[in-house]
Amino acid sequence: MRRERSGVNKQYSFPTVRTQGEETRPSRCPDNSAFKQQKLPAWKPQLSTATVLPGFFLTGAFCLAVGVCLILSANSVRDVQIDYSDKCSDCSKFRENSSNWNKECHCSVNFTLKEDILGDVFMYYGLQNFYQNHRRYVISRSDAQLLGRNVNSYCAPFTAYRNGTPMAPCGAIANSMFNDTIDLFYNLNSSAIQVPVLKTGNSWWTDKNVKFRNPKSYNLSSAFAGTARPPYWHKPVYLLDEEDERNNGYVNEDLIIWMRVSAFATFRNLYRRVKRIRQFADGLPAGNYTFRIAYNFPVTKFKGRKHVILSTVVWSGGSNPFLGIAYVVSGTAATLTGFVITAIHLKLRKKKTYFQK
Amino acid sequence: MADPIRWARYRWQQLISTEGGEGSSSSNSSNKCYQSSKTSGKHRIVIPCLGHFKEEYEKVSKLYMNNKIRTTKYTLLNFLPRNLFEQFHRVANLYFLFLVVLNWVPLVEAFQKEITMLPLIAVLTIIAVKDGLEDYSKYKMDKQINNLLTKVYSRKEKKYIDECWKNVNVGDFIRLSRNEIIPADMVLLYSSDPDGICYIETAGLDGETNLKQRQVVRGYSEQVSEIDPEKFSSRIECESPNNDLTRFRGFVEHSNKDRVGLSKENLLLRGCTVRNTEAVVGIVVYAGHETKAMLNNSGPHYKRSKLERKVNTDILWCVLLLILMCLTGAIGHGIWLSRYSEIPFFNIPEPDGKLIPPTLAGFNMFWTMIILLQVLIPVSLYVSIEIVKLGQIYLIQNDIDFYHEKTDSTVQCRALNIAEDLGQIQYIFSDKTGTLTENKMVFRRCSIAGREYCHEENAKRLESYQEINSADPQCSSSTHMSEWRGHNCSAVNEPLNRKSLNQLSGSYLAPGREDGAGDVPHSGHVAFSSPIETDVVPDTQLLEKFSQISSHSYQQSEEASSNLSLETTYITDFFLALAICNTVVVSVPNQPRQKMRHSLLGRTPIKSLEEIRQMFQRFSVWRLSSSPLPSVKESSSESPSSFVSKLSIFRMKLASSALDGAAQGAAEPLNTDSPENSQAPQELDTVNVAAGCEHNSAASSIELSPLPKLCYEAESPDEAALVHAARAYKCILQSRTPDQVTVDFAGLGSLTFQLLHILPFDSVRKRMSVVVRHPVSNSVVVYTKGADSVMMDLLRTASEVGTNNSEMEQKKIKERTQKHLDDYARRGLRTLCVAKKVLSDAEYAEWLNHHFLAETSIDNREVLLLESAIRLETELTLLGATGIEDRLQEGVPDTIQALRKAGIKIWMLTGDKRETAVNIAYACKLLEPDDRIFTLKSQSRDACALVMSKILEDIQKNTSAKKKKSQKLGNVFASPSTQAPGFNAGLVIDGRTLEHVLHDSLQNIFLELTEKCRAVVCCRATPLQKSVLVRLVRNKLKAMTLAVGDGANDVSMIQVADTGVGISGQEGMQAVMASDFAISQFRHLRKLLLVHGHWCYTRLTNMVLYFFYKNVAYVNLLFWYQFFCGFSGTSMTDYWILILFNLLFTSVPPIIYGVLDKDVPAEILMQLPQLYMMSQKSVAYLPSTFWMTLLDAFYQSLVCFFVPYFTYYGSDIDIFSFGNPINTAALFIILLHLLIECKSVTWIHTVVIIGSILFYFVFALAFGATCRTHNQPSNPYWIMEKHMIDPVFYLVCILTTCVALLPRYLLRVLQGTLFMSPVVRAKHLDRLTPEEQKEAIKRWKDDCIVNGRVEFQTTSGSSSSATGAVSEEESIASVLPTSKPPFRACTKEGLVEDTSSLPDIQDEPETTNGLNSEKTAFLNSSKETNLDTFGGNNSCAKAPVCASEEGSSAVSLAHKAGLNSVLCEEDALMYFTKLEC
Predict the structure, then answer these.
(1) Three-state SS across A250-304?
(2) Shortest Cα distance, chain A CAs vs residue B440, angstroms
(3) Is B195 tagged catalytic?
(4) Chain segment B1281-1292, per-residue pLDDT in tens
(5) Which ipTM was obtained for this model?
(6) Cβ contact (<8 Å) for B1309 and A47?
(7) pLDDT in tens, B81-93
(8) Neighbours of B984 (CB within 10 A)
(9) CA of A164, closest CA in chain B: separation in Å?
(10) Which of B195, B206, B421, B431 is catalytic?
C-alpha cells in the first residue's frame, strides 16, 4: 500500500493524488545500485606518516632543483638602474611651474658600464610611487576608441573638453602618458655615438595588431580631425611618431605599453630595445654612457621617482631572485618536514596500536 | 421497576428529540441554549437553493465559498512580483540586493553595475524556477480536482446531474455512490443503509484505512425512500468553518421549528471515500477552502536545523570580518589620500575638478570595499546547502536498508532541511506501543472471576508463528485491479477518478483474497488482518467451562445460585463484554453490508407461513423497543415499561440481524398499527419460546457450516484482539448498528442487544463503556473496559460491613484479579479490566436525564459529557481482566543498546501502566539489569520535590565515588554517557507525578535528576504531557531532541521535538503526517541516526566550513591587493572571472563533497555507535574549528597573493596579468584543499574536480581570445594565452599551491598519526581485511567494556555501609530480568506460584510447592521493592530476602513486605517514616 505523501500532495488529502504513479512503480524498493547505496568504489587517501613520506621528499627534491635553476638563471641577468629624478632636479622644478608646460627641458645622466651586457638589451623607464593601479584611474579609458571606433565612453573625467571636442585618446590613463624622451649615447673616445634602438616590437603582438587600431581614413591627421589631444599632452596623437606611419596614432607602441596599466605603484615599462648592429651586435659593451632626457613627466607632485633601466631577460623573467629563493626555501622545508615525519613514524612503529595490525 | 410516569416522560422526550446520536431529547434548557447562540454571528446558516428558500438562499449562501479550490501561491500575473517579494524576505537576498543597489551609486561603484547583479539573479532564478515548478504541479493538481465530477441535484431538471467539483455550492444536494470521493463537507441526509449508516474511509484525510461510521441525521434515518430535495424544507445552522476534524456542532431546524442536533457523526468530510454503502445523499455545508480537510492543511512546516543556526551566527562573524576589512580599506584610503597635497595623475578629480576630502573619500571607499569583498558573505552557501540537503535526502530515501518488505515502504523524508540534525540527537523520546512494539495485539491471557486462564496453546502458537502471509503484493494487487474494474462501472466515469480508485483498490491487500473476493476494500495488511491476531487458540480449561454454559440454558444458570454457575455467569458476561464493549465495525469481505443481509436471509430456510408471521411479529417488537417512530411512541407511552420489558424477553430469540433486513419492507405497514398489535406478542409468548428452541438447533447447525468470514475493523488493535478472542470462544460479534449489536453466542444462539449508549474511550477517563439493554434479563447493563488503574477505583466497594456474600466474593475476586494484572504487567502484557454494572430502569432514566442535558448543550458539551460518563461508571462489578501481548518489534533491543552507546538518552513516554512499561523497558534493554531504578510516585508536589532531592543526593554520592575511580584509571575513551560508567540510574515516573514535576518550581530539579539518569520511563503520560516533556528538555537543556511515535497521541510530541520521526504503523498516518522522517520500523532508527545522521552532519559541516574557507581565502586575495593600490578598491582579476569563480568554477566540487563524502563506512558506523558522539558533540564544527578554518584561509590567501607579488615585484607586469596566476593558483589551492579534506574520492569527485579545472582554463582561454573590447575596462585579452607559454606562470602556480597547502596537509597527516580522533581511527579500520577488521572492532568494543567494568567492580567492592545496600539491590535486580523474562510462556508452575503467593485464599485446590513459592515470593517482593521504591528503601527490600531463607512459612511475610513497599511509595512522607523502621 502506498502511503506516499509529498509536500504538495499532502495539501489535498486525496487518494487520487496520493496514489498516482502506482502502476508505473509497483514496488518502492530502492535500486540496489552502488551510487544510491553509497557504495561507489572510492580512493580513500590515507594521511598517515608512512604514506606521505615519499611525497614530502619528492616535493622537497623537486623544489630544490627548480630553485637552484631559477637562482642560477636570475644571476645571469644584468640589470642597470639609473635614478634620474634627482639628477634632473632642475628640470623637475621647472616642470612644477605649470606655466612652463610647453617649454622644453633637457638633462643628461652619465653612467659607466663596468662589464659588457651581452645579448638583447632592453631599455625600461621606471616609475616609483605612481599608482597606476588606482581603481578610478584603471577604468578611465576607452578600449573601443583605441580600436578606432568613434566612441569614448568610460573616460570620465577626460572625455571631452568644455566646448565638446572629444579627446583622442580619452581617459586618465592616456592623459597621463609618460612623455619623457630618453636617448642613450655611447661615449667612445669623447665622441658620443647614439645607441641605435628599436621603437617597435616592444609591445604584445596582439595589442599592436588586434587591440589597437587607428580610425580609418586616407591619412592620420584627417582621421583624428574633430578631436583634440588630451590636456597634458604636448602634441596630438597623430604626431606621436612622425617618422614611422605604422607606429603613429593609437598604434604607437609607447602609447600601447602605457595603456597596459601596471600592477604596482613601482613599476617599469619597456621603452626601447637596443638594435644589435655594429658595435652593439653582441649587446652593450662596457664603457661610459650618457642618457639624454627630454624631461616632460613631472613626478614631484606624488613624490615619485623616475628611473632608466637597462636589462637583459632570461626564460625565468628578470633579475628578481625571489622565485628561486622561495623554491629553495620551500624545498628545504619540505625535506625537513619529511625527516621529522620519518622520525615520528619510526617512533610510532615501536608502539603498535591495536587497530593497526 | 421504574415508575410509569418517568418512563412516559422519557418516551415523550425521545419523540421530540433534537439531538442525533444516542436517542435523546431536547429539554427546554437546551432550546434556550440554541437560541442564545444563534444570535451570535459565528454560525452559518445553510439552506438549499430550492423552493421557498430561494430568496434567502441568494442572500445567505452567496457569502460562502464554493467548492473551487486554488492551492497555488502564484498566478501567471503575480508570479514575478510575489515570488521576488517572498524571496527578499530572506536576509541573505536582501543583503545582495543592497549590494546591487549600492553598486548603482556612482561614488562607490566597484564593478560594472550589471556584473554585480549576476549572482543575485542567478540565485533568484534558481529559487524562482524551483518555486514555479512546485506551484505548477499544484496548479495541475487543483485543476484535476476541480474538474472531478459528482452528482448534484439540479433544480431545473429535477434530478441529479453531473457537475464539476468546482461548481458545487453550499446548500447543494449531492448524491454519492459507493467508492466515490466526497467533494465537500456535507451533512448526511440519506443512506441506502437501512440503519441510516454510511461507512467512510478517511484514508485520504488521515491515512487510516479502517471504516468509520457516519449516521444520517436523526429523523431522516427512518425514511424508506431516498430523500427528495424538493421537499427538504429545513434549514441547517452550524458553526463557522474550523479545522477541528473531531468536532461538528449545529442543528437542523425543520419547518415546524423542531430542532435536531448535528454532531460529527452526521458530517461527511471532503476527501473521504464512501464505502460499503450503495448511495448517500447529503447537503453541502462547507465547500472548497472552508472544508475541514482544507482548513487542516497547514502546508509543509519549516524547521531550522541546529547547524543552520550555527552557520547563521558564523555568517554574522563573517559580516563582522567584512566590516573590519572594509574599515581597514576606508581608513587606509583616507590616509593614503592625505599624503598627497596636490592631485596626482592617477587620482581622478571629480567632474568639477575638485578633489573630495580624504575623510569623505574614505567613507565612500568603505562602501566600495563592501561591494568588492561581498563574496566574503557566501551567497552561494545558501543555495549550496539547499542542494546538498536535497542530495542527502535523496540518498537517505534510496537506502535499501530502510526498505521494509512487508509494508512495501521505505523511509520518507518529509522535512527537507533538517537531515543533519539526525547526527546531533541527544535525547530520544519514544512512544512504546507501535513504536518499540509491533502494535499487533495478540490476546494472551485472561482472568475471569479471579481465576486465570493462561492459554498455553495460544502461547505456543505465537512462539512458532512466522509471518506467512507476506504474499507477493504485486500479483495480488493486479488481480484486484481487474476485478475492480468489473464492479466499478457505475461508480464514476471520470477517468482520473476511476484510475485512482483502481489504484486504491489495488493498494489494499484484502486478507479475504482466498475467497476470491477482492472488490471490497478493507483495512488491508496494515490493519488487523494478520492471522497472528485473528487466530486465538482457546484455553482448554476455559473452553470446558464455556461448553457447560452452552449446554445449560441461560435462564437456568441465572436462576441457580450455585458457585459454579456464578462463575459461568461471570464468564458469559466477560465474553459478552469483550464482544460488545467496543466500536468494532463488522463487515463481510465479499459483499457490502446490505447484500450480506439478503444473502444470509437466503441461507436461512423459511419453512412455513407460520414462521414468516413470527418473524414479522418479532420485527414489530423490535421496532417498538429500539427506535419507534413518533406515532408509535406516542401511543405506546401509555403502556409503561413493564410492557416493553416483557416484550424484550423475546428479543433474545430474534435470529440474526438478517431477518431484520428482510422483514423491513413488510414490517412497515405493521409498524403503523402496532399499538393494536401490541397484544400479539404476549399471546405469542409460548410460541416464541418454541421457536427459540428451534432456532437454537438451527444456530448450531449453522455453526457446523464454515463460519461466515467476518472482518472486524476496530479503531484500536486492542479492541480487535479482544473481539477475536471472544470469537475464538464462539462468542461472535455478528453485526453492529448504531442501535443494536448482535452476538452469536455459542450455546444461546444470536443475542441482539439494544445499544443504548456508547461512551467512547478517551485519554482522561482511560476507559470506555457501552450501555445496552440485555435481551435476557431486560435490564440495562453497562459494560466497561479500561485501564486497571482507573477501573479498580470504580469498583463496587464493600466499605460498609460486607455481610453480603457476593460482596465478599467480589473483594476476593478483585484482589486476585489485581494479582493477575500485576503479573500480566510484569510479563509486559497490556492489561485491561472488564467490568459490568446493572442499572435499574429508574437509575438509568435518572442518568439519562443528565446525559441529555450534556448532549444537547452546544458550548461545553465535551466537559458535560465527560462528567456524565463518570457519573455512570461507578459501582462496577469486576468481571475479569485480559492480558494482550504486544510483541517487541524486530531488532528493538539492539537498536536501543546501540543508540545508548552512541550517547543518546532514551526516554520512553507511554500511556501504559507502570509495570507494563517497565517490563517493556527491560525487554528492549532500555533498562538494564545493572541499572538502579528510581520510581517517582507522589501525591503532592512537596513530597515530589523531597523525593527528587533525595534521589539526587543518592546519585551524587555514588557518582562522585565512581568518578574518582574513573579518573584514576585514566580512561582514554569518552565515556558513553555523561555519568561514570558502571553506575546507571533509571527513572520511572507516572503521569500523575509528572503533573507535579512539570510545574515550574520543580522543573529544574527534575531535569537535573533526569540528566543523571540514563533512561527515563514515563508511564500513564497523556499526549499533552509528552509534548510538554519534550519541550522542557529541548528548551531548558538546550538539547537536540528526537521524538518517535506512531499514533495520533504522539503527534504533539513529534511536532515539538527538533526532529520528529513517525513510524508508519498501524495507528493511522497522523504521526507520519506530522513527522519529519517516517520510517517503517523502529530498528531503522539505528541506521538513520548512526549512519545517515553522522554522514549528513559531517558532510554538511565540512562543506559549510569549506565554504567559509573558500570565500575568505579568495576574497582576501583582493584585500591584500588593496595595500598596494592605495586602498582604492581595484581588483586585479577580471570581474567576470571574479564572479564566476564562485558561481561556476568552484561550486560543484563542494556540493559533490557535501553529498557523497564518506568519512567512515556504514558498517563500521553501525558497529561502533561510539562514533556518533563525535557528531553529537559537534566536534567537527566547534567554534575553534571555524576560527582555525579562517586562520588557514588567511594563511593560504597570504601565500597565494605574496608569492606572485614578490615574483613580479618591480617588473613590467600589468594588473590583470598579475591577477591571472593568483587566480589560477587560488583555483588549484581551493580544489586541492577539498581533495585533502575528502575522505573518499570516487570517480565522481575526480570528474568534477578535473572538470572544474578544465572549465576554468577553457573559459579563461576562450574569454582571452575573443574579448577585445567587451569587458571594459578589465580587458583580459590574450592574457591567459600569454601566460600559458610562460614557464614562470607555471612555476608560480606550483610553488604557491604547494606552500599554501603544506600546513593543512601536515596537520591532517599528524592527525592521522599522532592525535587520532575516533573517527580517524575508524577510518583506518576500513583499510583492514574483513577478518582483521572484525578483530579490531571487537577489541575496540572490549576496551570500552573493560574500562567500564573495571570501574564498576572497584566501586562495588568499596561499598561502605551506605552503599552496601545499594549494591545488594543491584544484584537483586540483575537476577530478575534473566530469571523472569517478560514474555516467558505460561506454565502450570506459574499458575501455582501466583496463587500460592496469596496465602489467605484458602479455597484453591492446588497445593503449594515450597521451593517454588519461595522463589516466587522472593522474586515478587524483591522486584516490587526494586521497581516501586527508590534506592533508599533498603529496610523494605531486605526483609523478603532474609525471609525467603526460612522456607515457605515466610512467604506471606515476604509478600506483606512487598505490599508494604508498595504502600510506602504511595506517599513520600509516609515513606520516610517507613525508612526509619
Answers:
(1) HHCHHHHHHHCCECCCCEEEEEEEECCCHHHCCEECCEEEEEEEECCCCCHHHCC
(2) 18
(3) no
(4) 999 999 999 999
(5) 0.92
(6) yes
(7) 888 888 887 777 7
(8) 23
(9) 14
(10) B431
